[in-house]
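Chain A, query sequence.
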Amino acid sequence: MKIQDLSMCRLVKGEDLNHHGTLFAGRAAEWFVEAGFIAASSSTSTENTVCAKIHGMVFTRPVKKGSILRLESKIVSAGRTSMIVYVKVLLHPQNEFVVDGFLTFVNVDSQGKSQPHNLIIEANTPEEKELQERARAL
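Chain A, predicted structure.
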């Protein structure tokens, strides 16, 4: 399967802010996982996909109220039952980098036990190959 890019946007509102008046990291983490989940479940199913781990989320800048964020996600690596998704967050429309990281999702059955998803991820571009290597090193 070729790596498929998915994106979603979020408006940063007052209820998304911390005591400094910038985007609360917990809210950003919620959106981060949601974007990763959408990528992972688009190749399996929503009822069989669970998040197992966030592998890092380092902010490069504060995000202010009224900002529009674009979250780009894609599955970059797959094991027998797990998938690693890369998520990158940019300020829209400036395309200024805010944060990125990886998440591991697992394909499970109705009892919550891991089950094979039968995905094989093909990295074709140099960027995709580099992301796949980073994911495999986690």
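The mean pLDDT is 95. The longest strand covers residues 96-107.
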